[in-house]
Design a protein that fits this description.
The complex is a heterotrimer of chains A (about 400), B (about 325) and C (about 240).
Chain A lengths: L2 H16 L6 H22 L2 H26 L7 H16 L15 H23 L4 H21 L1 H4 L5 E2 L15 H25 L1 H11 L1 H6 L4 H27 L1 E2 L6 H14 L4 H16 L1 H6 L6 H6 L1 H15 L3 H11 L2 H31 L21
Antiparallel strand pairs in A: 1-2
Helix pairs in contact in A: 1-2, 2-8, 3-8, 3-11, 3-12, 3-13, 4-5, 4-6, 4-11, 5-11, 8-11, 9-11, 12-13, 12-17, 13-16, 13-17
Chain B lengths: L1 H12 L12 H32 L6 H17 L4 H24 L7 H22 L18 E3 L4 E3 H23 L1 H11 L1 H6 L4 H27 L7 H14 L4 H21 L10 H15 L14
Antiparallel strand pairs in B: 1-2
Helix pairs in contact in B: 2-6, 2-9, 2-10, 2-11, 3-4, 3-5, 3-9, 4-9, 6-7, 6-9, 7-9, 10-11, 10-12, 11-12
Chain C lengths: L1 E10 L2 E11 L4 E6 L5 H9 L6 E6 L2 E2 L5 H7 L1 E4 L11 H8 L6 H14 L1 H5 L10 H13 L5 E5 L7 H17 L3 E6 L2 H7 L2 E6 L2 E7 H6 L1 H8 L2
Parallel strand pairs in C: 3-8, 3-9, 6-7, 7-8
Antiparallel strand pairs in C: 1-2, 1-4, 4-5, 9-10
Helix pairs in contact in C: 3-6
Classes of the chains: A mainly alpha (about 400), B mainly alpha (about 325), C alpha/beta (about 240).
C-alpha cells in the first residue's frame, strides 16, 4: 500500500469516529485517538520495509517538531536552529554507543541504547538551558537569525574538532538490533518503527501534561504579552528559559533516536534544510497545536517524496517537471497552504469540523449576492476611472441616483 | 580526556599560524583588508536588500539570495545567447526587479495581516521553489558554470597599499556607486521620501495620497534589483551553481543584523565589518584549533556576542511592537 | 459640498455605521459629536476612502467618491488629519510637510504653502529639521494640521484635534481651526469629544450614537439641547 493511501485511510477512519453519531460525545475524541493509534501500530505490517522506514523518520521528526512547537507555537520564541540541537543529541548517543574506539576519549563499552537516548535528551536540555539565557535578550527576527547561525556553524565545528566527533566521516554505530525476546516477531525495520512510535507517544503525553498544566498556561501568557504575564506574577525570564530547555530535551531525545535508527551520524546528517523544515512544519501544521505538529511532520516528509508522485498523476502535466524539480512543487504547496490556510492544516481542520450544515447552506445562498456586490464594486472602480478623465472633473452627479435622506 | 589535555597543551606550546602577524608582513595585511572590503561591499548590498524589505514590509526575506541566484542564471543564459554586457546588465536588473515585484504581489501581499511567522514561511517556500526551478532549468551538465566578468579575476593591480585583482576593484566601484545611488534616492527624491514614509506609517501615507501598494511593490522590486546586482558581481568569483548565494546570504544576514535590521547605514557598515572580519579571522587565528575552516562559526559567534550587548544591532532602533 | 447618504460600514463582522447621512456645505465648519466608539472616526475613514462602505454613497462636489482609493480622494481635495495624529515620527518636520503635498506637482505653489504653514505655526518653523517624534503633543497636532493643509484641500477632515492636549493648547488649536476656515476658505468636518469647544465654532452639528445619527441641528441650537447638555457638555 502506498503511504498516501494508508494515511488517507487512517485519517478518514479517525475523523469518521470523531463525528460518529452513535458514540456519546465524551467518548468520541478518546476513541478516535485510539483508532489512530491502532492504525499506526498496524502500519509496519501493511507497508513495505522502505515505507516503514519512512514512517520511522516521520515519527522521529514528530518529536523534534513537538518540541519546537512548545518553544515557538506556545511560547513565541522563533528558532531556526533546532537541527543543531538534534545533531548534539545524535552525536551524544553515537559517542556513548561507540564500541570500536572511533572516538578515543571514552572507553569502548557501549552503553545500552535506551540509556543513550535519555542521556542525549538530558545533555541537550542542559545545552538548551545555556542557550535559553542569552536568547532572553533577543527578539523575533534577531533570535531567528542567531539560531540559524548556530545550525550553520555546527558542521564546520564538527569537522574541525574531529577528535571528538569523527570529523567529516562521522561515527558509525550500527542500527540498534531488536532485543532477544522479540526475535522472530519483529524484523529490524519494524522494531525501530515501534521504538520511535513508543517514544513519540510518550513525548506526546508528556507535552499534553505540561501544556495543560500551569506551566503551559504560563508559556502562553508570556507569548501573548510579556508585560501582562509579569503583572500576573509569572517569572517571564524563567518561563522562557524553561520552554527552551524542554524544547531542547525533545530535540535531544529525537537526536538519540536518530542515531539508533540510522546507525550512523555525519555532519551532513541533519542539514540546514532540515532545520528550516522543522519551522516550516510547525507553521504548515498549525502553531500551538500538538496534532498540528504531527500533521506538519508528515507533510514535510511527504511534500518532497510523495507530493511529486501525486502531482504527476494530474493529466497533461509534464512529468519531467515533477521528476527534476520536486522542490518546486514543495515550495509551491508550502506557499499555497500559507495563503489559503493562515492557521495551518490543523487550524483549517478545526474550521472544517466547526462548520454546521446550516451555515454551509447559508454561505452558499449568500454567495451570489456577494459576487454581485464584488462585480458592482469592480464596476464602480471602472466608473471612477472613467470619471477621472481630466476633462470630466466637474461632471455633476449621476442623475439616475435616487436622492439620499437628509442628515438626521 | 587525554586528547583534550594534549589539545590544550599543543595550543599553549606552539600555535600554528597561516600567516605572519600584521606587523611582520604589512603587505599581506593590507591585501586582506582590501579584499575584505570588496567582499564586504557584496555583503553590504545584499544586507541593504534585506533591510529595505524588512523596513517596509516587516519581512525577513529568506528568499533574497535565491532571487539573486535566479537572476544571475538568467543573465548567464543571456551571455550564452551572445548579448553585449550592457544589454545583459539592463535586462538582468529589470528581470530581477520584475521577479521581486511579482513575488510581492502574488505571495507577500495576500499574507498581510497574518502572523509574522507565516510570512517567514512563505519566503522559505519561495527559497525552496526558486532553488528547485533554477536547478531544473539551468543546472544541467557540468557545475559550476563559469560566469564572465568584463575584467580579469586573476590579474591584479597595485593600488598603493595593496595588490588587488581587477574584478575586485570593479566590485568595490560598482558596489559603492549603488550605495551612493540608493542614498540619493532615499534622501533627495520624492519617491524615496514616499518609500520611507510608507515603511513608517502606512495609514498616514495613504492619507497623504501615496499609493501604498505601489510603494511596497516598488520596494521589493528595488531590493531584488540590488540583490541581483550583488549576485552578478560575485558570480565571476564563486562561479554559478544553484547554491552559490547560500553563504553570501548568511553573511548578509549577519551584516544586516549586526548593523540593525531597520538601519540601511547599519547594513553597509555591517557588510564591511563582516567582509573584513571574515578575512582577518580566517588568516590570523591559529590554524590547528581555529583557522580558515572556522571563520564562519567565529563570525557568527562574534555576531551573537554583539547582539547580546546590543540586542538590535549597532545602529538599530528598538521597535515599538504592537502588542 | 459633501453629502454622505445612508452609509453603512463594518470591520469584519462588527458593524460600525448604520445608515449614516450627513451634509457639509461649502465654507462651513460642521462637527460630529459622540462618545468613544460611536463611529465618528469610521465616518471620516469612509469619506477619505480608507474603509469602503457596505452600502450607501458619498458624494463630493457632485462626484461619487466612495469607491475611490484614498490617494484619488486626496487629489480631489479632501484631506484627512487622523486621530492620534499619525505623524511620520522618524522624519523631520519639513519632510512631514512635504509629504502632505505629495499629490501636487506645482513646485511654486507648494513653496508658497510651506511658507504660509510656517507663518501659521511659527513653532514649526523653528523645528523644521527636528524629527516629528521629538515635538510636544501640541506641536505634533499643529504639524498634523499643517501637513493636512499642504495638499491644499477644499475639505479638511479633523479627527479629535484636542486629544490629550492641555486646555490652553486646545484653545489655541481651535483658534487656528477657526482662522483656517475663515481666511483660507477651507471647509471643515470636525470630529470631537470636547463638545463645548466644537459647538462654539461649528455652524452645524451631528450627534452619533452606536453608529447612528441621533441628532442634527445648528451648533447653537444643539448647545441648548437638553440631551446634548447632559450627555456631552456636562451641565
Amino acid at each position: 500500500m502506498s503511504i498516501g493511501l494508508f494515511m488517507l485511510l487512517m485519517v478518514g477512519a479517525a475523523v469518521a469516529v470523531r463525528f460518529a453519531p452513535f458514540l456519546p460525545e465524551r467518548l468520541r475524541i478518546p476513541v478516535s485517538l485510539a483508532v489512530l493509534l491502532g492504525f499506526l501500530i498496524w502500519a509496519p505490517f501493511t507497508l513495505d520495509g522502505f515505507r516503514t522506514f519512512q514512517m520511522t523518520r516521520i515519527t522521529v521528526w514528530v518529536i523534534v517538531i513537538m518540541g519546537l512547537n512548545i518553544l515557538t507555537g506556545y511560547n513565541g520564541q522563533i528558532s531556526l536552529g533546532h537541527g543543531a540541537l538534534v545533531a548534539v543529541g545524535a552525536y551524544t548517543a553515537a559517542i556513548l554507543m561507540d564500541s570500536t574506539e572511533q572516538i578515543s576519549f571514552v572507553d569502548a563499552n557501549p552503553w545500552p541504547f535506551w540509556s543513550t537516548i535519555i542521556v542525549a535528551g538530558g545533555l541537550t536540555a542542559i545545552l538548551g538551558l545555556l542557550l535559553g539565557i542569552p536568547a532572553l535578550r533577543l527578539s523575533g527576527p534577531y533570535l531567528a537569525i542567531a539560531t540559524l547561525a548556530l545550525v550553520i556553524s555546527l558542521p564546520s565545528i564538527i569537522r574541525k574538532y574531529d577528535g571528538f566527533t569523527g570529523g567529516g566521516i562521522g561515527i558509525r554505530v550500527g542500527r540498534t538490533q531488536p532485543p532477544g525476546f522479540l526475535d522472530g516477531i519483529l524484523n529490524l525495520d519494524e522494531w525501530l518503527y515501534f521504538l520511535a512510535l513508543f517514544t513519540a507517544v510518550l513525548m506526546l503525553l508528556l507535552a499534553w501534561g505540561i501544556l495543560r498544566g500551569p506551566l503551559g498556561r504560563a508559556f502562553m501568557a508570556v507569548r501573548d504579552s510579556e508585560v501582562a504575564a509579569a503583572a500576573m506574577g509569572i517569572d517571564v525570564a524563567r518561563t522562557k528559559v524553561t520552554a527552551f530547555t524542554i524544547s531542547a530535551f525533545y530535540a535531544g531525545v529525537a537526536g538519540g533516536l536518530f542515531t539508533q535508527v540510522n546507525g550512523t551520524i555525519t555532519p551532513e546528517s541533519i542539514s540546514i534544510v532540515e532545520s528550516i523544515n522543522f519551522l516550516v512544519a510547525i507553521v504548515i501544521g498549525g502553531l500551538a497545536s500538538m496534532m498540528g505538529s504531527v500533521i506538519g511532520a508528515a507533510a514535510i516528509i511527504f511534500l518532497p517524496t510523495e507530493g511529486p508522485e501525486l502531482v504527476g498523476q494530474i493529466p497533461y502535466l509534464q512529468t519531467d517537471v515533477v521528476e527534476r524539480a520536486p522542490g518546486a512543487i514543495q515550495g509551491f504547496l508550502v506557499i499555497l497552504v500559507m495563503l489559503l490556510m493562515p492557521r495551518g492544516l490543523a487550524g483549517f481542520a478545526h474550521r472544517l469540523a466547526a462548520l454546521r450544515p446550516a451555515a454551509v447552506v447559508e454561505g452558499l445562498r449568500a454567495t451570489p449576492g456577494r459576487l454581485r456586490s464584488r462585480v458592482e464594486d469592480a464596476r464602480g472602480g471602472l466608473f471612477s476611472l472613467w470619471d477621472a478623465r481630466p476633462w470630466n472633473r466637474q461632471k455633476p452627479s449621476h442623475p439616475d441616483r435616487p436622492d439620499g435622506g437628509e442628515g438626521g | 580526556m587525554e586528547l583534550i589535555g594534549s589539545g590544550i597543551g599543543a595550543l599553549l606550546e606552539s600555535p600554528v599560524f597561516l600567516a605572519a602577524p600584521p606587523w611582520e608582513n604589512p603587505d599581506l595585511f593590507g591585501e586582506q583588508i582590501v579584499a575584505g572590503l570588496a567582499t564586504g561591499s557584496i555583503y553590504a548590498l545584499m544586507a541593504l536588500a534585506i533591510v529595505l524589505i524588512y523596513r517596509s514590509t516587516d519581512v525577513l526575506n529568506f528568499a533574497q539570495g535565491e532571487m539573486a541566484m535566479f537572476g544571475a542564471f538568467a543573465m548567464w543564459s543571456l551571455w550564452l545567447a551572445g548579448l553585449e554586457p550592457w544589454q545583459i546588465i539592463i535586462i538582468g536588473v529589470m528581470l530581477a526587479a520584475g521577479i521581486g515585484a511579482v513575488i510581492e504581489r502574488l505571495a507577500i501581499r495576500p499574507t498581510q495581516g497574518a502572523p509574522q511567522l507565516n510570512v517567514v514561511v512563505v519566503t522559505l517556500g519561495l527559497f525552496i521553489l526558486l532553488n528547485s526551478v533554477a536547478t531544473w532549468v539551468w543546472a544541467q551538465g557540468d557545475l559550476p558554470k563559469v560566469f564572465p566578468s568584463p575584467l580579469s579575476t586573476t590579474a591584479s593591480v597595485d593600488i598603493g597599499i595593496a595588490r588587488i585583482t581587477e574584478h575586485r576593484i570593479l566590485i568595490l566601484g560598482v558596489g559603492l556607486s549603488i550605495m551612493v545611488a540608493l542614498f540619493a534616492l532615499f534622501n533627495y527624491t520624492k519617491l524615496g521620501l514616499a518609500m520611507r514614509a510608507t515603511a513608517q506609517n502606512r495609514l498616514a501615507s495613504q492619507l497623504m495620497g501615496i499609493n501604498v501598494g505601489r510603494m511596497l511593490t516598488l520596494g521589493w522590486a528595488l531590493s531584488a534589483a540590488v540583490g541581483g546586482l550583488a549576485g552578478l558581481l560575485i558570480a565571476p568569483i564563486t562561479f554559478l551553481h544553484p547554491g552559490f548565494m547560500f553563504s553570501v546570504l548568511i553573511f548578509a544576514f549577519a551584516a544586516a543584523v549586526l548593523g540593525g535590521l531597520n538601519s540601511p547605514p547599519g547594513a553597509v557598515v555591517g557588510g564591511f565589518i563582516i567582509g573584513v572580519g571574515e578575512n582577518l579571522l580566517g588568516t590570523y587565528t591559529p590554524q590547528d584549533i581555529l583557522g580558515t575552516e572556522m571563520k564562519l562559526p567565529l563570525i557568527l559567534l562574534l555576531l551573537v556576542i554583539v547582539l547580546l550587548v546590543r540586542p538590535t544591532g549597532l545602529f538599530g532602533q528598538p521597535e515599538a511592537r504592537r502588542v | 459640498m459633501l453629502k454622505v447618504s445612508s452609509v453603512s460600514a463594518a470591520y469584519g463582522p462588527i458593524r460600525a455605521l448604520h445608515d449614516v447621512s450627513l451634509e457639509v456645505g461649502e465654507g462651513q465648519i460642521v462637527t460630529l459629536l459622540g462618545a468613544n466608539g460611536a463611529g465618528k472616526s469610521s465616518t471620516l475613514r469612509v469619506i477619505s476612502g480608507v474603509i469602503r462602505p457596505t452600502s450607501g454613497s458619498v458624494e463630493f462636489l457632485g462626484q461619487r467618491i466612495h469607491h475611490r482609493s484614498p490617494e484619488k480622494i486626496v487629489s480631489l481635495g479632501i484631506s484627512h488629519v487622523p486621530e492620534g495624529r499619525e505623524l511620520f515620527t522618524e522624519l523631520t518636520v519639513a519632510e512631514n510637510l512635504s509629504l502632505g503635498a505629495y499629490t501636487r506637482r506645482d513646485r511654486d505653489g507648494i513653496r508658497q504653502d510651506l511658507d504660509r504653514a510656517y507663518q501659521y505655526f511659527p513653532l514649526l518653523a523653528q523645528r523644521r529639521e527636528q524629527h516629528a517624534g521629538s515635538l510636544s503633543g501640541g506641536e505634533q497636532q499643529m504639524l498634523a494640521i499643517a501637513r493636512g493643509l499642504m495638499s491644499r484641500p477644499r475639505l479638511l477632515l479633523l479627527d479629535e484635534p484636542s486629544l490629550g492636549l492641555a486646555p490652553l493648547v486646545v484653545k489655541e488649536i481651535f483658534k487656528i481651526i477657526d482662522t483656517i476656515n475663515r481666511e483660507e476658505k477651507v471647509t471643515i468636518l470636525l470630529v470631537e469629544q470636547n463638545a463645548s469647544m466644537a459647538l462654539s465654532i461649528a455652524a452645524y452639528a451631528y450627534v452619533l450614537e452606536t453608529g447612528r445619527i441621533v441628532l442634527a441641528d445648528t451648533g447653537s441650537a444643539l448647545k441648548d439641547n437638553e440631551t446634548v447638555r447632559r450627555s456631552y457638555l456636562g451641565y
